[in-house]
Amino acid sequence: MSDPAPADLLRSLRDALGDRHVLTDPDLVAPYLVEQRGLYTGRAPAILRPGSTQEVASVVALCAAAGMPVVAQGGNTGLTGGGVPEGAVVISLERLGAVREVDPVGATITVGAGAILAQVQDAADQAGMLFPLTYASRGSARIGGGIATNAGGLNVLAYGNARDLVLGLEVVLPDGRIWDGLKALRKDNAGYDLKQLFIGSEGTLGIVTAAVLRLFPKPRSWGVAFVGLPSARAALDLFVHLRDRADRDLTAFEYMPPFALDLALRHGKGAVRPLAGEHGAYALVELSSCRPGSDARLDLETVLGEALETGLIEDATIAAGAGQAEALWGLREAVPEAQTREGGSIKHDVSVPLASLPDFLERANAACLAAMPGLRPCGFGHFGDGNIHFNLSQPLGMDRAAFLSHWSRFNRIVHDIVHEFGGSIAAEHGVGLIKRDELIRYTSPVALDLMRRIKTALDPHGLLNPGKVIRPPE
Amino acid sequence: MSDPAPADLLRSLRDALGDRHVLTDPDLVAPYLVEQRGLYTGRAPAILRPGSTQEVASVVALCAAAGMPVVAQGGNTGLTGGGVPEGAVVISLERLGAVREVDPVGATITVGAGAILAQVQDAADQAGMLFPLTYASRGSARIGGGIATNAGGLNVLAYGNARDLVLGLEVVLPDGRIWDGLKALRKDNAGYDLKQLFIGSEGTLGIVTAAVLRLFPKPRSWGVAFVGLPSARAALDLFVHLRDRADRDLTAFEYMPPFALDLALRHGKGAVRPLAGEHGAYALVELSSCRPGSDARLDLETVLGEALETGLIEDATIAAGAGQAEALWGLREAVPEAQTREGGSIKHDVSVPLASLPDFLERANAACLAAMPGLRPCGFGHFGDGNIHFNLSQPLGMDRAAFLSHWSRFNRIVHDIVHEFGGSIAAEHGVGLIKRDELIRYTSPVALDLMRRIKTALDPHGLLNPGKVIRPPE
Questions:
Q1: pTM over 0.95
Q2: Which domain holds residue A88?
Q3: Where is the FAD-binding PCMH-type domain (chains A, B) (predicted)?
Q4: Which residue in chain A is spatially nearest to B196 when comparing CA positions?
Q5: Pairwise CA distance, residues A289 & A274, whole Å
């Protein structure tokens, strides 16, 4: 910790929140300074824990008056360093954790930004509804962070990204004013759609304090399968086949190259090989339906049966029940941690137009292998969204740190190919610190100018999460 | 027509587009000055018909340099006066009508802003896909206008508003620069989501010249029913029942009070009473499914059978085939024109949270009747979206003009109630001219300030569609 806050400001902040909620003790402050990959360690003169929207507004106003920058933090589970303070005060939203209201008729839920994702899901579930946003950190990620980063995850195919699930927002602006946009409407064209500005802008334009979110009918049947295919191209053909026949019942289509399955089997707890033989590519597929009397498992059997007959797939196992379904999902979900256990990895969270996914994987795999023989590319993930976590595991026996020193070099190789395909170098995790310079490289001057104009219009003094997403012009 | 353009500017515009595409002849200009309800007649020194994005950029740059404001126009089918020029040059996008590309694997279509909605639908259909955006003016409305107004229509329940269907945009900015955001990605968090700024901002921040839009699998079966219910409250119960059981197969839930059905039967061509008896409320319901072997008609029979047994509905007729389905849809679609034939009508395009729809209808009906006995309220439309076209037909025998002179008074009554329910006074048609002052009345100072900051950041000289949506501060 460094950059102590001016004594006057600290005193005002303590007056506003009470001493207990202004942390300056280094031990208490420490957890708010690091992000989970350990790539960054920040510094902050204080951690503020306001207990209400009004308190958030008050402390933001105090900081603004003192010229003190602020960084909003939810569960601090981000993967890009977007919540790491670089001398700014941290405003933790953790005490704004209430589920304010569940409306099963309107199919909405109103929550404080600090509500933990799993708690939002549970509250919806208890009301007989589904809140579909979900990802690995659901037990500690807070919904405000998911909204601020427009998080994706495992259910995007049928239900969309966080942006698609937000109906209304309450936001504290950089000068401490509160914008109350907590509407629960499916249609609203009364002026500019202000909430869109704050979703996905990573706390650089405003601090989300509450949201109205969409709920959906709860599925009544599921089918989960693990499929063996000859190639990524076959996976694309299978995806199109399934989308055409299952449409919005197709709730997941996750891709794993053979190396990803190897990793999951090697490091995953109790992981069992799902198919007898080995294949060039694998897909985890889920259908679900809320229709009474539906049998998504049978539907899946039918469409995969067709795919087997026409030679589109080589083999498939369909989960007989919830336990087996969980085990198959477990293989896919084991990959990120398994890759960490396998040594150093250089990560990319990219998307390309769906039709070019197989070409992208081929090109990117070849280019990375050419740049470092022995490297083990592991492009896996949300295939149906065109979103691949194109991670590179270090060559066996290489020094971890030596490998990681090539991070920028591989970024360049992979992102250049993504760019060539008209893709995105920041598909679902956001930009934060880690991709801020890459963003500038791959974004047109016109787009950068528009982003800077927006930033300047809403946060003219650059007080909110400074240095993240978009750098000021040099 | 008035306000002649400076001769220098006209000469440059003619040089840029050719004489044929700079219209100043009053007869040729006239159609671009009126909107279809005849509420406004504009004035414009010239109509420009650029033939490419580059030409749009060139003429915008020329106008910007001359300080000449511009209004973009698509099919000029808007209902709010948003495309009416008030002394500005009109830039018609009609020559940018090409369907540039259909990608059935990626499930996207790339179109020029001037493409007619029906042509976009047809191009998707020919590729075996569905482009779901649809509304009454589909034969002449152009897609750029639908995007600029975030149009809704008949398929929002399952597929969303125009905003939800846009993956990428190409936009000419107020200074004539082109922002190329024509990405075809389902996930992209690389910086601020700039396209959201232009969708629904009615040409006040930029001129949409092309878009990448989402396509969906084409339904393989349909079921359409006309349902008689005791009340709007019962309609809400039925909607929740259907949503729970059909989920995303529920593709339409349209509401008609008895007076709306009367109007359709009185004025609709060949309209036939769909149910033997009379009921307190009516709903037109559609299920559809792309699953091979699905039978949405049978599904609809099942869920409506349950609703009949539990007394949720009083009667229903299910279309036996496409012809009958069209006839039922025809009753709903006949309402707007039938209401015009019935005399003067004062219109409101509003939305409220779904659960409060019955209360809203009751309150608004009573308040309007109290204000003018004999008035015939006709709140009908997209019930499932919480969106009601709350239109008021004049009392029988009253003078049309005398009735219409009460427009503002009824706006106040209806919009006050909408506001009380946390609703929107501009649900799907936008703000334009007709609701500009109403918007200011019902929008918080914080929200207005944000909107003005955005307008100023993107269009500092106020050259794009001046006076629409958001007025400059006084």
A1: yes
A2: 7-92
A3: 40-218
A4: A196
A5: 24
